[in-house]
């Protein structure tokens, strides 16, 4: 019976370095694949509710649906929103409440409070507001969103733009 003898490894440091490089390469490729899946997210307006409407305060609660296509858990550490009506900036909204996001569908609550009188001035007075309401199909609403995300030790931005007509937004609310 023959006994197999193992050869002495001539350069163990080279083998360890090769294994480390391979492990780092596989980890980096997996992380990049998950990042690409994460960036194929979907955000939609699920619902909104009027909270208050006075001369100095217009407050609504928005519920956004965020579809996380990756298998990663992460945190949204800040949210910045710019609201445009007919390409006129009417509000900038920020939210620094930290939200945990899991794989799959997630709800992102957002309370929006603006000064209606400041918005009226930006939209050419009450006549401008009345024209927007009467021509709701021609009134465009655009919301530019920037979500700041924290994943392990990485922080990066996830941009999103929502655009629709005022008429379509109001019709979607009535359907629910």
Average of the residue pLDDT scores: 81
The chain-level structural class is alpha+beta
Proportion of strand residues: over 45%
**N- to C-terminal separation?**
81 Å
Index terms:
8 strands; 4 helices; 176 residues; 31% helix; alpha+beta; 3-stranded antiparallel sheet; 5-stranded antiparallel sheet
Question: What layout of secondary structure does this protein have?
Answer:
Layout: H1 12-38, E1 42-53, E2 58-68, E3 74-85, E4 88-95, E5 99-101, E6 104-114, H2 116-122, H3 125-134, E7 140-151, E8 154-165, H4 166-175
Helix pairs in contact: 2-3
Would you mind describing this structure in some detail?
The protein has 176 residues and is of the alpha+beta class. Helix content is 31%, strand content 46%. The chain is built from four helices and eight strands; from the N terminus they run H-E-E-E-E-E-E-H-H-E-E-H. Helix 2 packs across helix 3. The radius of gyration is 25 Å and the shape is rod-shaped. The relative contact order is 0.15.
């Amino acid at each position: 019976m023959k006994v197999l003898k193992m050869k002495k490894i001539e350069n163990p440091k080279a083998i360890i370095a090769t294994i480390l490089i391979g492990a780092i390469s596989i980890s980096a490729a997996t992380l990049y694949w998950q990042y690409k899946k994460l960036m194929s997210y979907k955000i939609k307006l699920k619902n909104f509710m009027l909270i208050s409407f006075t001369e100095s305060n217009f407050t609504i609660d928005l519920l956004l649906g965020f579809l996380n296509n990756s298998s990663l858990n992460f945190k949204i550490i800040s949210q910045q929103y710019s609201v445009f009506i007919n390409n006129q900036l009417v509000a900038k909204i920020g939210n620094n409440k930290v939200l945990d996001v899991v794989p799959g569908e997630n709800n992102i609550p957002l309370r929006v409070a603006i000064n209606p009188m400041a918005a009226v001035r930006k939209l050419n007075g009450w006549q401008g507001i009345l024209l927007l309401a009467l021509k709701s199909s021609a009134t465009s609403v655009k919301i530019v969103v920037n979500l700041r995300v924290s994943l392990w030790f990485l922080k990066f931005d996830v941009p999103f733009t929502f655009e629709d007509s005022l008429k379509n937004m109001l019709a979607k609310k009535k359907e629910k």
